[in-house]
Amino acid sequence: MAKNTNTDKPSAIVIKLDSITGLDTARILSGYGIPVYGVADDRGHYCTKTSACRELFITDTSGDGLVGTLLDIAARFEAKPILFPCSDESVRVISANRDALREFYDFVIPDGDVLLMYMNKESFYRHACEKGFLVPHTFFLESGSGLEGLPDEAEFPLIVKPALKSPEWIECFKDKVIKVNTRAELRDVLDSGSKVAKGIIAQKWIKGGDSNLVSSISYYDGNGAPQASFVSRKLRQWYTENGDACLAEECRNDEVARVARELLSGTGFRGIGSVEFKLDADSGKYYIIEANVGRPVTRIGMTETAGVPLLYTMYCDATGLPLPPDREQRYKGTKWISLHRDLQASWKYYRDGKLTIAGWLKSLRGVRSFAVLSLRDPMPFISLILGGLTGLFKNPKK
What we know:
Layout: E1 12-15, H1 20-30, E2 36-40, E3 55-58, H2 64-73, E4 82-85, H3 88-96, H4 98-102, H5 112-119, H6 121-130, E5 138-142, E6 158-162, H7 167-173, E7 178-180, H8 183-193, E8 199-204, E9 213-220, E10 226-238, E11 244-250, H9 254-265, E12 271-279, E13 286-293, H10 300-305, H11 310-319, E14 335-337, H12 339-351, H13 357-363, E15 367-370, H14 379-388
Parallel strand pairs: 1-2, 1-4, 2-3, 14-15
Antiparallel strand pairs: 5-8, 6-7, 6-8, 9-10, 9-12, 10-11, 11-14, 12-13
Helix pairs in contact: 3-5, 5-6
């Protein structure tokens, strides 16, 4: 990582610092000599113990409190800071208040209509289908309508998710998406989900293991031109089958890179966008699973370790600085790990007879990027250990 000790650089405000994505974003930007400030919901979260931030502000990052806090602290900065939202909720808040915030801050996110199209899964899947992109067979279920929107010939298992991800859905199900194997299971999910989501989507489950999930993350500048991209695949995830990556590696996949570029470029997209695909074990085709826009993803640290300065490219573009000259992925085989989550996932795979200790050790070869563990910034990991790893192997998801 290139280092720069110039303290005259505009500051970066990392929003939702109390997350792995926020922590790694703060560390990456701080590594370039950028003054970093954090905004978080939970002061006690282990990620807020980082030394990468000069100051921490506590507020509701998913509501009006975020706007109030940003306006309150704006006067302390001589140059406009750059906002780096690290959650869907904070992206939506910034978008909804972009006119008020633009006077004091710079940020690169899609225009409101484009952002909503990508963030609302119903509009996103409809757009992808209309443009001829390959997505799993999808059913749009109205809240309170039960199984009326599901034809009799629908194949199970299905993946159920809200049209708009929300804290209420996560609180209800403890997961972003739910896998159901029968109509009775689907009915139970709809009964609960209709209380916390206005629109619910059911999709055909695409067969294949964790390593069949491949993502392309890109940065499009303020003019809508692609400036950096990075392709990687999951090796393990937590929760298993439908969670976030906990072990991943960079890979070359020209088809995924091409389709992701076509999907984002056709809408006047700006900012950070990540598109996830899954390789169907039966057909050998890649299906678009989801898009995450306006923010980094959990394994953003891998892009930096692998030599693709995606976040710094965004910072330079927002501030008017020259873009980093070397932004091409070089396919070093870099692996990234979220160690505590991978231990949870690996323990589940081990209990299910899908992973051996020798296999786990072999899978760690090539790991060069860590989500929380850092010798230069040890306190988040120490805080994580002290805060509750004693329950690591208890009650894994069945």
